[in-house]
Every structure is written in structure tokens, then in C-alpha cells.
Write a structure and sequence with these properties.
The protein is 64% helix and 0% strand. The protein has 137 residues and is mainly alpha-helical. The chain has a domain at 2-46 and 83-130. The protein is globular and about 55 Å long. The chain starts with a helix and ends in a 7-residue tail after the last helix.
């Protein structure tokens, strides 16, 4: 019985870890959407530093960790990176884990709620930063 309980705990941990990783990745994408939507740029293309416009290598795009590793500064121009980036990524990851804990038994509801959550985060952060709610994405 103890073995079965440990297996269930491992499955829950794995499920929450996947939800957190997905939340970190989508949190990073949310930041891209907010920045490019305001600048009127397309959502496609490589990520770049907002100040020096240098394309970032893949290892500088790891959510939250790269911000901490770089000390909150761009690797190339050494200008500060907005605290918005790690905060949005971490909050999105935490909310994904919480929603997964609430709706794990209903995968369709979970996906729908996470989709709505992503749009709500985009709207909230965009409005918080620019005092404007976009009509379309």
C-alpha cells in the first residue's frame, strides 16, 4: 500500500512540474506578446533585447533562471532588464500549478481555464504597464 501511495505522489509531482514548466514557457511568451503588441511588431521572430535589439541566444531565454543568472541585465549591452519578465513568468507558472491542482480531474476544463488565464494575464499586464486594454491580439 505504501508503494502505491508513493507512486501516486510521484505522479502528482510530475503533473505539477509539467504544469509549472508549461506556465514558465507561456509566461515568457506572454511577455513577448505584451512587448510586441504595444510596439506593433509581429509575434513571430527571434527574441531580442528591448534596448540594444541584439538577438538573444537560446540559453538567455530560459524563464526566470536566465534573469537571475544575468543579474537582471542584458548580456550584450548590460542595461537593466525589466522586472516584469521574471514576475510574469513566475506568476504564470504558479497559477498553472494551482489551476492544475483544482482541475486535474477534468482535462478539458483545465485546458479551457488555462487558455482563458493566459488571455487574462496578457490583458492585466498590458493594462498595468500601458494603461490600455487592447481590442485584439
Amino acid at each position: 500500500m505504501l508503494y502505491f501511495t508513493m507512486m501516486i505522489d510521484i505522479l502528482y509531482f510530475g503533473m505539477y512540474a509539467i504544469a509549472g514548466a508549461l506556465g514558465l514557457g507561456l509566461g515568457s511568451f506572454i511577455n513577448v506578446v505584451i512587448l510586441r503588441l504595444h510596439a506593433g511588431k509581429p509575434l513571430t521572430g527571434r527574441s531580442m533585447c528591448p534596448q540594444c535589439h541584439t538577438q538573444l541566444a537560446w540559453y538567455w531565454l530560459v524563464p526566470v533562471l536566465s534573469y537571475l543568472w544575468l543579474g537582471g541585465r542584458c548580456h550584450y549591452c548590460h542595461k537593466p532588464i525589466s522586472l516584469q519578465y521574471p514576475v510574469v513568468e513566475a506568476v504564470t507558472a504558479a497559477l498553472f500549478v494551482i489551476y492544475t491542482a483544482w482541475f486535474w480531474f477534468e482535462p478539458l476544463y483545465l485546458v479551457l481555464h488555462l487558455l482563458v488565464l493566459v488571455f487574462l494575464i496578457i490583458i492585466f499586464v498590458y493594462d498595468f504597464k500601458y494603461y490600455l486594454i487592447p481590442d485584439s491580439v
